[in-house]
Each structure stands twice: as structure tokens, then as C-alpha cells.
Write a structure and sequence with these properties.
3 helices, alpha+beta
Length: 99
């Protein structure tokens, strides 16, 4: 997987350019239980997934992969991770935000 520092916050981009390492510690979690994962057509972009869930309030997550193979991997991983329930994700987020 290729990492593009311009897609991260200025602070994390500077840290990456200085150390060559991204901060991989999660800052939040997304409940995937009950999500709908679909391949999605976006003009000018190939290999796109759209992830929706009633709890997203009508919103959606869109993920673009570099290759068809990578897209299928992401689709499988997200679908397989759907066992994460909302209460578990909230518990994780609460732990991450506590000092």
C-alpha cells in the first residue's frame, strides 16, 4: 500500500516526512455491523467502494483503491469485520478518548 502524506493532517505529514513512519494508532472506530458495502461508480475514478449504514444518518464512506485486487480485498475485510457492533465501537472510542 502506498502512503501519501498530503492526505494526512499537516502535523502528521511533517512527522512522516521527518521519520518515515505514520502514526497508526486509531483515533476512533467505525461500527461496521450492518453496513452495506457496494462497488460504486465515480466518474474518473476506478475501484471505488461505498459503505453505508442507517446509523450514518444518510452519510456514506467512500474508499478508492489503486487496483481491482485491492478493492476486492478491502470489500472482503470490511464485510468480514461487520461483526463489530455499535456498542463495541462506542466502548472502543470512549477508551481512546479517556486520559
Amino acid at each position: 500500500m502506498r502512503c501519501d502524506p498530503s492526505r494526512y493532517s499537516e502535523k502528521e505529514s511533517k512527522e512522516f516526512l521527518k521519520t518515515g513512519v505514520f502514526n497508526i494508532h486509531p483515533k476512533a472506530s467505525i461500527p461496521l455491523g450492518g453496513c452495506f458495502v457496494q462497488e460504486y461508480a465515480v466518474k474518473g475514478t476506478n475501484h471505488v467502494l461505498r459503505i453505508t449504514h442507517p446509523d450514518f444518518g444518510g452519510g456514506q464512506l467512500v474508499l478508492a483503491a489503486e487496483t481491482e485486487e485491492s478493492l476486492l480485498d478491502w470489500k472482503k475485510w470490511i464485510t468480514d469485520s461487520g461483526r463489530v457492533c455499535v456498542s463495541s465501537a462506542l466502548t472502543t472510542s470512549q477508551r481512546l478518548t479517556q486520559p
